[in-house]
Structure formats: structure tokens, C-alpha cells
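Hi everyone,

Forwarding the result from last night's run.
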Amino acid sequence: MPQRLIDNHIHGSFGINFNNAGYDEIKFVLSELFKRNIKGVCPTLVGDSDEKIYNQLKIFKQIRLEQMNEINSEALILGIHLEGTFLNPQKSGIQDNKVFKKLTIENFKNLVRDCEDIIKIVTLAPELDIDLIDYLKKENIKVQAGHTLSESLRKCSAITHIFNATPQIHHRNSSITLDALVDDEVYCEIIPDLIHSSKNMLKLFFKVKPKDKVLLISDSLPSSNYNSDIIFCNKKINKNGKDEFGTLAGSNKTLDEICTNLIENKILTKEDIDQMGFKNQIGYLNLSKYEIDILNR
């Protein structure tokens, strides 16, 4: 098992969905993840009504404040990753595009209200941007392109789960996926569970992308480490991580399981995992010395 990991993209686990989990359920997941050496997380929320998202933000903000005041044996909340609301309806994946909104400052503020300070990452479709990207960057919130049909990264500093809900790479066409792959300054999230990308595609990706710009993520579903079907985005998701129409959602594994599998398949080394699954996240998220000290405990 890897010695330390940070997961920037996780929707829940152990049967618990971060989009509707209560205080005690979230604490349970954070405690279980810590046992697996996942030291920090960015709990990731999919699109929903403004009221439901805001209620969840308040709970996570409360737990985060408690963690910063009293160090305990649970994964540290490093900030929330919003992966919903501001996506392209044509690339919604498993998400419900009926709740998507225009990419405006007003819509963002109406969503997060007094919880903006806990937002760390926003995944959005840059081709639909009106005035949101500039605002988020000014507020030091990481802007990631995802669930998008964009031909370029525009002002985004990272791409969300590359190859999934992004345009396919074609040898004659431009795409945001290709731009992110070859731009050495852009961070790339990737779900390396051997399901969302094949073994050879992962090998190609790790050959092309600089090691210091890779962010290993789980995109873990509530069904991870839970032996039953779940409801996610108001859809029934089976044990294979797909809905009834075969649409692939997130992963059914936590990041420690995924990274162990990468090592066993000789795709990455333990040193690679430490960099791409821990050190890179610290730099990307611009964590404080106090947060880093907590993570290294």
C-alpha cells in the first residue's frame, strides 16, 4: 500500500455519497480513507440544486474548521471540488444536465454564498464561459476544464480526468485533450484504474506527460468498497460503475487500491506514486505549511 496519498477528486466511498452525506457519514469516510494512507482529499460534488449543494458545503466547511483546530486520524479536507453545474450538457456523462447553469459570477455566488472560502477546484466547460473563469482565478480557485467540447484550454490550468468526458484525440484535429497532453505547463488529472483508460493508453500518457504535472485521482463513487448498487446523480449505478444504459460513471476503487494496482502491473513505481499521488497535489493546491505538516503526520 502507498505510504501517503492525496485525492483531489472523490465523490464518496463505503456506500456514502458526498452530495447527500451527513456530518457523521462524512467523518466515517474520512476516517476510513486515512486508514488507507489517503492523507487529504478534495470532496467532489456533482451538479444538484443550489440549496442541496450549499447545505453540503456548510457541513464540509464545519468539519474542515474542526480539523484545522484539532489534528485527528482522518483525511484532511483540503477544499471542495465542484464538478457540476457549469458543465457542457452535451458532455454530461452520468450527471444530470438539467441542473447545469450558465458560467457566470452571479450563478457561482448564488451557489456557494458564504462558503466560497472552502472551494478549491471548479471543473467547468471553458467554451461556455461568460465571466466565471477570470473571477475564479482572481479568487485563487483552481479552474479545470472538464465535461467539455472545447478545442483549447483557454485559461484553465488543468484538465479533469483526461480522456473521459473530453474530446477524443484525432491525428488531424485540435482538441483540448491533445492540448493538455502536450502542454508541459498544464496539470492533468487521470483515473488510472485500467477501466477509464486502457493499460497501453496509461503507458503512453505517462511517457508523454511530465511527471510533475500528473494528478492521480480515484473519481471514487459511493459504491467503492460497498458491495451493492447505488443511486448517484439520481441514477442507479451497478457494481461495474455503469448505469442501465452502460454509461460509465466514476471508479469503484479508492486511490490506494488504484495505485497498488499500478505498481503491481509495473505501470508506475512507488516513487512515481509518491510524486503523482502526493507531492504534485501539494504544489498544485498551494497548500499552507500547516496543512503540509498535518498531511505528513
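The mean pLDDT is 95.

Cheers,
N.
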